[in-house]
């Protein structure tokens, strides 16, 4: 009895906790309005083939330009969107927007879209993906969905069923942040991925730690024997690029190759060509 120490009492009533919750709630309310206020945007980051240097596609990364707070990071607002029931709306917005834009690119380029755990758990994702492809006119084989281990872990059977439905349309699936989950090998064995995205933490230390380099080699060998291409994320310097290229990494992405940028800025650098107006899918007509 009376075990509660002053310390726990303080922790329980800690006003800074209240503040934190209030802050998150505020952010959630503002995010709810951000759609109509046109504060959300998508940046794209280039993904290149190591062997040929060709652009394979672009990853869509959501951005929130808040009028007072400036740019709020998705690492901050995606968890809030999940907590306050906004993630389905956000995920649907990103998917539709990313596909609509990619439908205007030269068809050689794919678009990769991140799918959050809750989006995968609750939404009728296969139906939403199909509807989005039909409405935007994007060919299914130009869309890649990026999932993390935590996204698919909860219910194996259901996840497998959903992934098969999505892959059945021709959409490809990448395993994002590979190596950070706690059962990466099991995940790889169970689900039919088309690409492995080697996590930042491995790439970061690939030049400095012999142990990390050995693990990276092992993942690349694994990818080769499973016939799944490996993309290394977050490449920041030439040493990392050269090491990964020597070891046979298939694709690369990172600040060294290109920062995430608005699509018109990428177009103006000449790294992306848009289709002439006349060759674009007549989306509006189809919707009426
Ligand atoms: P991610 O999917 O692993 O995306 C890669 C992140 O690494 C991006 O951060 C990108 O800007 C950053 N990055 C790329 N190259 C480099 C580099 O060379 N060095 C460093 N230090 N960072 C680099 P961003 O855009 O802040 O996104 C963070 C995470 O938020 C993403 O990680 C993804 O999990 C999530 N996210 C972003 N956009 C969306 C979205 O539309 N939907 C969902 N569900 N999640 C998203
Ligand atoms: Mg990603
Ligand atoms: Mg990643
Ligand atoms: Mg990451």
Automatic annotation (TrEMBL):
Residue ranges of domain EAL in the record: 24-274
Domain of life of the organism in this record?
Bacteria
Q: What is this protein called?
A: Signaling protein N terminal repeat/GGDEF/EAL domain-containing protein
Q: Which organism is it from?
A: Hyphomonas polymorpha PS728
Which part of the complete protein is shown?
422 to 709 of 727
